[in-house]
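Regression test attached.
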Amino acid sequence: MSNVPNAELDSLLARLADGDRAAFTDVFRLLWQPVLRLCTSMLRNEADAADAAQQALEKILVRCTDYDRKRAALPWALAIAAWECRTLARKRTRRRELPEDNAPELGSGSEDDLTRRELVAAGVAALGELSAEDREVLVATFWEEAASVSGATLRKRRERALKRLRDTFKRLYGLD
Amino acid sequence: MDSIDVTRIERRARLKYEWSRARRAVLGFGPALIVVVIAALASKHPNAAVAFGGAMFVVGVTLLWYGRDVRRGVLPGLAMGLIPLVLGLCANHMGHACQGDHCMTLCVPACTAGGLAAGIGVSLIGLRWKQGLAFWTGATALTLLTGAMGCSCAGYTGVAGLAIGYAVGLLPGLIRRGRATWGKSNQA
């Protein structure tokens, strides 16, 4: 994650938003791995993660004209990817899908695994209730990426976003 | 995870990117169709107005879709093109100016004056924004096509008057810009 050159990505995405097609492949290559990693960590299923990463990348590139040049590109892109993962996870929950390769194994640890996945799904659902800005701050925190602001402002934003996430979680599930 | 065909995904994403740009360009330039409709309704040669208006719409959408410097010429080009368009349409309805036995159509002088004003306007904006050749080209194409919707009142003469007026208005600014660019490249 940390090997993505942020300044380079910011400038490449700004160029692409302006219509410079020469930046397309570089933006795609710089974003593919971080987006795929985020999707894999959120969905815990390679096939779903690949699908979500593809959808997310398409959305990021389609919406690149909306990209605010004053802000960092990576958290913005990862927030879109996180939203895409959340949408896919919700669809999967709605269909009561349980992929075979991801089914809990019998024996020790399977209970923990299931609990962990349920908690992740609940967390992602709660994240989806937040505003885009809050999501972006929390995704940036997750990846230990500094957003466009730093220091006290970022800390304050993060605290507020975390408080709102806790409140949402409490409202949805009745527990902290 | 190794089985993911990244090249195919990239191609698909590129296609979606281009489609999204095209859609935005059509939506962004859509309001210009109102100008075309008004020009066609007000003009005595609606077919010519629609033909020039259609060309103006296609060029505007293409410039917005392509992006970069050329995109920046869209709004100034359209705005400046409204000057000869309005003057041309007004002259079209005023008919002729007569002095004694001699009468002349007002369309050609109105279009030439409108073209001159539009040329000066585009060159002022281009110089102020320090734009390159792409901006000047894009703005010129749109100004001429927008103005031509109103200047078709006198046939090709009206459009020629517009083009001549525009060239005269634009030339000083273009020379100044060219000299500035040439001076910079010489310094480098």
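Expected vs. actual: identical. DSSP finds eight helices and two strands in chain B.
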